[in-house]
Amino acid sequence: VHDAFKEAAMQNKLHISYVRAVLFDWLGIERNRSP
């Protein structure tokens, strides 16, 4: 059970970091595009 929880936590952390990276990338593009 502990391993499954740790694996889920790792995947969740990766998912959060991925979403954050995409979000910041999109925000950066939006900021650069606006005058």
From TrEMBL:
InterPro entries: DnaD-like_sf (IPR034829)
Record protein name field: Uncharacterized protein
